[in-house]
Design a protein that fits this description.
Order of helices and strands: HHHEHEHEHEHEHHEEE
Number of strands: 8
Radius of gyration: 17 Å
């Protein structure tokens, strides 16, 4: 069950595109506005592929972690709920799992209450907060999650909305430092070095809508995993990441993805 009643959301600004709503449009959702659709339609066709690949990676990673016994998830930048959502995937395996969703877009809060209902054995909660304030996120998350035990921190298609001047490395470090050994970081990120022309086109279209992007090279994305133990197959493109299941169909991708474990003190 949800652990609390979400507060009344502030008024949604429909005059400017928002990343969560553009992403919803790319996934074929209905919870977006003409201003968001206008941005989505100007993006190259590969943007829809990237959104789909992100979701599929999240599904595989969450299911694998649940199979490993992970029963706590902190999903930051959750976006507008799209079934199956993370808690549905996880609670099929671990019904008592506890999930905290975080997003800064008011429309996500409007749509969070009904679709994010937990299994009876577990719990879900929703926090309206900005990843650029990790202390506030952790403060709220501790009301639901036990940070003395492993937590899976999910940052799916989020960090490329934080240019370098917003210190994404420092933000991730603060979040990861709060995690117990045995926790995991699950991350996907748009690449600047796989399809440079497409990356430039996407960045320019978002910029025209007032949304700054910071696509990164593989080496730059790998830095988010510094000090962590990457799970096989390592940092790869989203369709290439899979574990105990048949390989997804091979396809081109401009998205890096990886899962890494927080080691115990003294581990290398």
């Amino acid at each position: 069950m949800p652990t609390g009643t979400p507060p009344t959301p502030p008024r949604t600004d429909t005059s400017r595109a928002q990343p969560a709503r553009v992403y919803d449009w790319l996934l074929g959702g209905k919870d977006n506005y003409p201003v968001d659709e206008a941005v989505g339609r100007k993006l190259p066709p590969q943007a829809k592929d990237a959104a789909r690949q992100n979701r599929a990676f999240m599904h595989r990673a969450a299911a694998w972690l649940a199979d490993q016994g992970v029963d706590q998830f902190l999903d930051i930048g959750t976006g507008i709920p799209t079934e199956p959502n993370l808690h549905q995937i996880v609670q099929r395996v671990v019904p008592e799992a506890r999930i905290v969703y975080v997003d800064n877009d008011p429309i996500v809060l409007r749509h969070a209450e009904a679709p994010l209902v937990s299994s009876p054995e577990g719990s879900t909660d929703y926090v309206q907060a900005d990843v650029r304030d990790p202390a506030a996120i952790l403060r709220h998350a501790r009301d639901v999650l036990d940070f003395s035990r492993p937590v899976a921190l999910s940052l799916i298609a989020l960090l490329h909305f934080l240019p370098d001047d917003q210190d994404p490395q420092g933000i991730v470090r603060e979040l990861v430092d709060a995690l117990a050994p045995g926790s995991h970081l699950v991350l996907s990120h748009a690449a600047s070095d796989l399809h440079a022309d497409l990356a430039r086109q996407v960045t320019e279209e978002y910029a025209r809508a007032g949304i700054r992007l910071g696509f990164r090279t593989r080496a730059e994305v790998a830095r988010f995993f510094d000090g962590l133990d990457l799970v096989e197959p390592g940092l790869v493109t989203a369709p290439e990441w899979f574990r105990d299941e048949p390989a997804p169909p091979a396809e081109d991708s401009g998205i890096y993805a990886g899962v890494a474990r927080v080691p115990a003190g003294g581990e290398s």
